[in-house]
Amino acid sequence: MRLWALRGLRTQRDLTGFPRTLELAPGMTPGRPVDGPAAAAGVCPTGALRAEGAATVVALDHCVHCQRCRHGEQPMRWREDIAWSHGAGAPLPRAFAHSIHVRVLDAGDCGACLAELQQLPAPQYSLHRLGIFITASPREADVLLVVGPVTRAMRQPLLDTYAAMPGPKRVVTVGACAASGGVFGPSFACAGGVADVLPVDRVVPGCPPPPLAVLESLLAVMGRSLPRAEDAP
């Protein structure tokens, strides 16, 4: 029985080389638009694409992955990677490089981003092997992971959760709604994104982003270096 358990742990560890190497297995990411001809901007329903001269600039925080720009007459170029996150916030101090606790807060999510986050403990992602643990208490959390466009009802609970966290602390937003309001905001019912309510350190765009993109952002907050798309074979 003990030998069986050890074999199971080894299998779980070896399912993916991430984060030592880029994860390129099919289905791990839906991809993201990178660049393309100016004509592609006209098919975007959310304003994520903007024509500048003969090219198109991508504002990934507004992209809902409808893929219209991927299949038009003049399609955008998409990149199959998981390094989606961005942010100007400094990583946590070095003491947090091996282990952090994360408080997940649903600020009005439609369910898509939460469904992706629920995959993180699965063997192919296994966030625990990376030293990342989910906590129910903000008083034990180092990182606040927020999904949803911050509805009016969740604005104060979001602020209360952030205030209850000890410092140093970081805020990571997951999904287009948390990044920019998505298709729901800004409106009378919700903010235009978490940054309109709290200081945000890292943004993971997407609708929804894949689990590995979320892990990539958390590792960046921990200050751990990661392979980038240009390192792919």
- N-to-C span: 40 Å
Number of strands: 9
The stretches of 5 or more residues where confidence is low (pLDDT under 50) are: 1-12
Most strands sheet: 5 strands, parallel
* Global morphology: globular
Biggest sheet: strands side by side, in what order?
A: 6-5-7-8-9
User: What count of helical segments does DSSP give?
Assistant: 5
Please provide the ordered H/E string of secondary-structure elements. HEEEEEHEEHEHEH
In angstroms, what is the radius of gyration?
A: 18 Å
- Estimate what percentage of residues fall within beta strands: 15-25%
- The computed structural class is alpha/beta
Mean pLDDT value? 86
Percent of residues in helices comes to 10-25%
Seen as an oligomer or otherwise, the chain set is single chain
Polypeptide structure, described:
The structure is a single chain. With 233 residues, the protein is of the alpha/beta class. Helices cover 21% and strands 17% of the residues. The protein is built from 5 helices and 9 strands, in the order H-E-E-E-E-E-H-E-E-H-E-H-E-H. A 5-stranded parallel beta sheet has the order 6-5-7-8-9, with helices on both faces. Strand 8, helix 4 and strand 9 (202-204) form a beta-alpha-beta unit. The chain is globular, with a radius of gyration of 18 Å. Mean pLDDT is 86; it is low at 1-12.
